[in-house]
Write a structure and sequence with these properties.
The chain is of the alpha/beta class. Helices cover 30% and strands 17% of the residues. It has a six-stranded mixed beta sheet with strand order 1-2-4-3-5-8, with helices on both faces. The protein has a two-stranded parallel sheet with strand order 6-7. Helix 1 crosses helix 3 and helix 6 packs across helix 8. The longest helix has 20 residues. The protein starts with 48 loop residues before the first helix and ends with a helix. The N terminus is likely disordered. Bound molecules: N-[2-(1H-imidazol-4-yl)ethyl]acetamide and zinc ion. N-[2-(1H-imidazol-4-yl)ethyl]acetamide (AHN) binds next to loops.
Length: 338
């Protein structure tokens, strides 16, 4: 494993424009008619939902992956070990210490895996791997300082990327693919939604200030971010910033989902606008779409377990992992070189 140990220089306070964190419902546009079953012959890759589910369970078994904890260190090593075992062409880490909004010093690691390193045209897939230190969406005040297990919020995106990594190592795509597992997405200030955007996504912000492994002239052509992609009955609407500023991957993902018969899961209307790692990536020059459950049928916002003590395996659904994993994997395998 090559490894970058990048000295800590503190996080740059990105002047991110204010984007509300709560999604707002703009009304459900109905999905396309009755969903067809995915036509097996048209499927590329072999995304195994049981494996993905197991990768969520493996992460959750460490406990909450809050930066600075033993569980966090163990999960960092788990992700690296998996990527190396699958046969990624390179696995590097970007290790640093960043300062959270409350002054906490966070030891962070962004983990980056590359596939098909000799290909000039590359695409980027990303997810955050940390879990939130406070369950501040709990009703009861005395539960709000407990850490979140993050099965969906953290675990699911990582799990889908790992199962994609297994596929990429087994069958090469025509383009290069890089996976970035960002740290410290979820250590942000929940108060005053919209005014604290720069307190979130600290790992991604650190990366944007210290970009590896690219030069400015060989960035991936686009990115796809996965966040909360394992919830039961999840619906993925367009995220507004993605739809505006990362139209190419947005259209590719939602069209491919529809083609595979997942049009009832990937809804082609805007569900809200959120601060997430894709904002940082897009600003860094990689237009990135966010596959995120931001217009839940019950909450009209994030899933009901979001930032609660119920973000656990009970609420993870293999069929959601499969819909997302197959869709992203098919987008990747269809991509043509320059
Ligand atoms: C905020 O809550 C600021 N943004 C949503 C991004 C997020 C948090 N994803 C998971 N946890
Ligand atoms: Zn979160």
């Amino acid at each position: 494993m090559e490894k970058w140990n990048v000295p800590a220089v503190g996080i740059m306070m990105m002047a991110m424009s204010v984007i509300g964190c709560n999604s707002s419902s703009r009304g459900e546009s109905s999905a396309e008619a009755a969903s067809a079953q995915p036509a097996t012959s048209a499927l590329l890759g072999n995304f195994n939902a049981d494996s993905a589910y197991q990768y969520v369970a493996d992460q959750v078994a460490f406990g909450p992956r809050v930066p600075g904890t033993d569980a966090h260190r163990a999960c960092r090593n788990y992700i690296i070990d998996k990527l190396e075992a699958f046969g990624a062409d390179s696995v590097i880490t970007q290790d640093a210490t960043v300062t959270a909004y409350n002054g906490d010093q966070l030891p962070i690691s962004n983990i980056i895996a590359g596939f098909n390193l000799n290909k000039a045209k590359r695409i980027l897939l990303a997810a955050h791997w940390d879990s939130r230190p406070w369950a501040d969406m709990e009703e009861s005040m005395d539960l709000r300082n407990q850490p979140v297990l993050g099965a969906n919020d953290g675990g699911s995106g990582v799990a889908v990327l790992l199962e994609i990594a297994r596929n990429l190592a087994e069958k090469q795509p025509s383009v290069g693919v890089d996976l970035i597992f960002f740290d410290a997405e979820d250590y942000g200030n929940h108060d005053g939604f919209g005014t604290n955007a720069d307190t979130w996504c600290l790992g991604a912000q650190y990366w944007a200030d210290n970009i590896v492994p690219y030069r400015t002239d060989n960035l991936p052509v686009y990115g796809i971010l996965l966040d909360m992609v394992g919830g039961r009955n999840a619906r993925f609407h367009y995220e507004a910033f993605s739809q505006q500023n990362a139209e190419t991957p947005t259209i590719k993902v939602w069209s491919e989902a529809e083609r595979l018969g997942y049009g009832d899961t990937f809804i082609r209307s805007i569900g809200g606008a959120i601060t997430d790692d894709h904002i940082v990536l897009t600003r860094a020059g990689i237009p990135t779409t966010d596959i995120v459950e931001l217009n839940n049928v019950e909450t009209s916002s994030f899933p009901p377990t979001w930032h609660t003590l119920h973000d656990d395996m009970e609420h993870i659904d293999r069929s959601t992992l499969k819909a997302v994993g197959e869709t992203v994997l098919n987008v990747v395998y269809k991509e043509k070189p320059f």
